[in-house]
Design goal:
Layout lengths: L1 E5 L13 H15 L3 E7 L8 E5 L9 H4 L3 H19 L5 E4 L9 H4 L4 E5 L5 H8 L6 E5 L2 H7 L8 E3 L19 E4 L8 H11 L3 E4 L5 H8 L7 E3 L5 H10 L2 E4 L9 H8 L4 E4 L4 H5 L3 E4 L4 H12 L4 H10 L2 H26 L1
Parallel strand pairs: 1-2, 1-4, 2-3, 4-5, 5-6, 6-7, 8-9, 8-11, 9-10, 11-12, 12-13
Helix pairs in contact: 7-12, 10-13
Length: about 350
């Protein structure tokens, strides 16, 4: 198939990833190409040059409009809208069999556009006002919608999802996150260092539990990092940097437990399954999809409960490392994920062909 993969443009689609959405698009492009599909990545022009890129914007917009300074600003919205409008027009004229839309933008899901090129849209966030009603109006036979977990499906459609919407769990290549049979007794945390990822809960719980902790990831909010994280950094709690996938896998494999600390309704939690693949049981804050994803591979605390999270750490450490690895291999592999993507493409293409037959 000739596939247009339409990404968001806040960041580059390149390693080291700023977050899960960049990772999702990169691994989807790589996986589909490995299966013989002709993939064009519509993304920021400074994304990974290993892919065939049709730039939505010349460079990712945070380079021009830093998010913390321009969130919701009219110039930023106009800049992004121009890019997506032109990209959607090129997709419509480009002879594509299907669009996989990861953009979280309203233009690609307009029924007039999905009637031209069958579209699968993956929603990676809980509902928010700027997109919510466009999504609600977009479900048609030629547009499939996916979310990453059952709680997210209920959040988007509390009164019941349309038949075009379904859960598509994220997946990873277990070989890229090799299993380590033993850890060094320490904890690890990774993600964007920003308030809604709860880094502050991880450092406080690790301190209370008396366990060494290494933090990995991009410092998205420097003020938050300086105020809430830096005061805890010492010989036992440290920042390990922003690593690419291979380096992060090696670091995770050395640890004994993973801390997962969402302070929002986390739709999935890709970092959790990456750590689980390496053999790390998880001490988690139970918000969003945490329990659906982690299951028997973790122990849980309530939202904002540092004491409970500290108690969950030794409880999680008692879980055999084979348990989290087995859960990933059973539920969250890249092959399982790509199989489901290809099935969705086939379904929506069939619906598109049927609609054309009726129109003829």
């Amino acid at each position: 198939m000739r596939i247009a993969l339409l990404s968001h443009v806040r960041q580059r689609i390149a390693q080291p990833f700023m977050g899960g959405m960049e990772s999702h698009s990169w691994y989807l492009a790589e996986g589909l190409e490995a299966r013989g599909h002709d993939v064009v990545l519509f993304a920021a022009g400074d994304s990974d040059p290993r892919f065939t890129i049709d730039p939505v914007l010349r460079e990712h917009y945070e380079r021009v409009f830093p998010w913390a300074e321009h969130r919701g600003s009219a110039p930023l919205i106009a800049h992004v809208d121009r890019g997506y409008a032109a990209a959607c027009d090129r997709i419509a004229a480009g002879g594509f069999d299907v669009v996989h839309n990861n953009s979280l933008h309203r233009f690609p899901i307009e029924p007039a556009r999905t009637a031209v090129v069958p579209t699968v849209t993956s929603l990676h966030v809980p509902p928010y006002d700027a997109l919510h009603w466009f999504v609600k109006a977009s479900a048609t036979p030629t547009h499939r919608l996916t979310v990453t977990s059952t709680p997210q499906l209920h959040a988007w459609w509390p009164d019941g999802a349309p038949p075009e919407a379904s859960v598509l769990h994220n997946g990873i290549d277990p070989a890229a996150w090799p299993f380590s049979p033993a850890g060094d007794g320490s904890a690890a945390w990774c993600g964007r260092i920003t308030p809604n990822k709860g880094t502050h809960l991880a450092v406080r719980a690790a301190r209370a539990a008396g366990i060494a902790l290494t933090l990995f990831g991009s410092i998205e909010d420097p003020d938050y990092h300086a105020a809430k994280i830096v005061p805890y950094l010492d010989g036992t709690i440290r920042y390990g940097g922003h690593c690419d996938g291979a380096a992060l896998a090696a670091e995770l494999g050395r640890a004994s437990v993973f801390l997962f600390t969402p302070c929002w309704d986390e739709p999935f939690g890709l970092v959790a399954i990456e750590a689980m693949a390496c053999g790390l049981p998880v001490a988690a804050i139970e918000m969003g999809a945490a329990r659906e994803v982690i299951g028997e591979a973790g122990r849980f605390a309530d939202a904002d409960d540092v004491v409970g999270l500290a108690a969950a750490i030794p409880a999680a450490l008692a879980i055999p490392r084979s348990v989290p690895r087995a859960r990933v291999e059973r539920l969250f592999t890249r092959d399982r994920w790509l199989d489901r993507c290809e099935a969705l493409y086939a379904d929506v293409r069939a619906a598109h062909a049927a609609a054309q037959d009726v129109a003829a």
